[in-house]
Design a protein that fits this description.
Largest sheet: 5 strands, mixed
Order of helices and strands: EHEEEEEEHH
Number of helices: 3
Strand order of the largest sheet: 2-3-4-5-6
Oligomer: single chain
Bound molecules: zinc ion
Low-confidence stretches: none
Shape: elongated
């Protein structure tokens, strides 16, 4: 969704609301995103605030069990036409006054996703030898020893 920023930047008190859904690129786990919020100018500072919700539908990175989870994040950025302090991620540099809200929200959604999506925080995964799901059963397989530790273990024997 595009918002024309010029009238907002130029008028204290101006605001534009949005409430829409768009397909998300960049993640296999999330298909689409709902965003509801506004861009507004308060005393010359233009900020975007939104409540963003989406549905994770994927497989656990460790045990491949289906993971379905609703997520909701709050998005807040101050929109600036030029950036002095590069380190502050609260600021969002606007490249065009015809502003693509999807891009900003997409970036925050992707940042909010964990590097590994797990069915549960302590998922034990799958035994690499017998293939059993270790959340359901235990097995007696001897896990291969890290070669860097092998020398040490011999020494201890
Ligand atoms: Zn799992
Ligand atoms: Zn096993």
């Amino acid at each position: 969704m595009f918002i024309e920023l010029e009238p907002i930047f130029n008028n204290d008190g101006a605001q534009k609301q949005f409430d829409y859904e768009f397909p998300l690129d960049g993640s296999d786990a999330v298909k689409s995103v709902k965003a509801k919020g506004s861009v507004k100018n308060r005393t010359g500072i233009v900020s975007l605030n939104a409540q963003v919700s989406f549905f994770i539908d994927t497989q656990c990175d460790r045990c491949a069990a289906p993971v379905k989870r609703e997520m909701s994040i709050t998005v807040h950025h101050i929109l600036v036409a030029n950036l002095n302090d590069e380190d502050n991620d609260e600021f969002w540099l606007v490249e065009s006054m015809n502003f693509n809200v999807d891009e900003l929200i997409r970036e925050d959604v992707l940042l909010s996703l964990p590097a590994k999506i797990l069915c549960r925080e302590d998922c034990k995964g799958i035994c690499s030898i017998c293939g059993i799901n270790l959340n359901e059963k235990q097995c007696d397989c001897k896990q291969p020893v890290d070669p860097r530790l092998e020398g040490l273990l011999k020494f201890l024997d």
